Amino acid sequence: MSNRIVWQWMGVLAAVAVIVAGPGCAGPSQESPVAEEAAAEGTAAPSLVTQEEHEATKAKLTVQFSDDFNQAYGPPDQFDLKRWTRMPMARARIRDGHWLLEVERAPPPGPGEAVLGGFGTTGKYFNPGLAGTNGAEVTVGVFSHEDYPEEMNERGQLVQAWSITLGSWHGFVGGQEDEDRGIQLHFDLLRDDGLFVYLVRGLRPDDFDKYPRDAFGTEEGRNMSPQELRVAHEAAIATGGPYVTVPCMALATRVYREEAEIKDLLERPRRWGVYLTDDANTVYWTLDGQVMDVLDITGYFSSSPQSVEDGALISIMGVATHQLNVWKMDDLAFLASP
Ligand SMILES: [Ca+2]
Predict the structure, then answer these.
(1) What's the 98 CA to ligand 1 centre distance in angstroms?
(2) Per DSSP, what are the bridge partners of residue 249?
């Protein structure tokens, strides 16, 4: 493993601390602070992406990478380690035409210390400079883990989190170098609390002056209980727009509280997508092809063009607290405008 990946892994651990402490609740956010600023300066705000625009654009994209996982890779790796770089703790297998991402820790079974792992593309994808439109889609099926006594469950504990990150490094958003750039779609399932879906980007120093902030990473936050941190996080989300939640800049947050809607999202295969369009000035995510949240991020990638001059790395990661954690995925595709 290169020093660079080790260093990045330290950043990942910071992200996990946030996930385990538990984020808060909110409805969908579609604020666009950059657009607001542009309006204030008297210039036209870039138009955001409609469902019709997404479908028309997507129809013209070319597939740069795809895998339906119908072909097993065989021993010793059991996975395509030419196109993928394995990160610590992670294993992959192909079973019944699906990609199983496994992250495991030592016994005993049941909820305990959070473990994380995943795979990042060995090479870069998408257009140079993220020009035009670039996106990734993958179907995520049912998450599974080992059996354990039910009484080990605790309210608010992390059940599982999954992420897809498009950026200049391998791993989660959080703890990168100043010049790194990346965006991430991830969801966290907290027991008896809800499913939280976040669209985030890397933090920039001036974000702290521009946006509301929760208590993660603050001096006062260091003395807070997990519950107090959670209340502060919910207050930041309740502002309805982007907010700083160290180590991320949260652009949009959706929270699903009802058991039926959580099951509907996690207990049958759903297709999660994340796109950059308008030369990476706009980011959005899709669920089963439907546009969910669209944000203007003008200036974010263009302030470090060298970070994505050859395209971006794509990482798919899982975090969970069981002994053996398995995410079942299928039909991965990376798309780019010609
Ligand atoms: Ca398949």
Answers:
(1) 5
(2) 201, 244
CA of 136 to the centre of ligand 1 (A): 16
Q: Which amino acid is at 307?
A: S
- Residue 288: predicted pLDDT: 98
Q: Distance from the CA of 332 to the center of ligand 1, in angstroms?
A: 9
pLDDT tens string 98-112: 999 999 999 999 999
Ligand 1 centroid–CA 263 distance in Å is 22
What top-level class would CATH report for the domain 3-336?
mainly beta
CA of 182 to the centre of ligand 1 (A): 28
Task: For residue 190, report the distance from its CA to the centre of ligand 1, in Å.
Answer: 28
171 C-alpha to center of ligand 1: Å? 24
**pLDDT higher at 142 or 28:** 142
What is the 278 CA–ligand 1 centroid distance (Å)? 31
Crossing angle (nearest 10°) for helices 3-21 and 226-238: 90
CA-based R_g, the chain, Å = 19
Which tokens sit at 252?
A: 């949009």
Å from CA of 256 to ligand 1 middle? 28
Spacing, Cα 96 to ligand 1 middle (Å): 7
pLDDT at 34: 43
Distance between Cα 331 and ligand 1 center (Å): 6
User: Residue 180: is its pLDDT beyond 80?
Assistant: yes
Indicate whether 258 pLDDT > 90.
yes
Longest dimension (CA), the chain: 61
pLDDT band at 47 (very low <50, low <70, confident <90, very high): low
Q: What is the pTM of this model?
A: 0.88
Q: Could you tell me which residues come within 8 angstroms of residue 91 by beta carbon, excluding any fewer than 6 positions away?
A: 78, 101, 102, 103, 104, 117
pLDDT digit string (tens) for 204-256?
A: 999 999 999 999 999 999 999 988 999 999 899 899 899 999 999 999 999 99
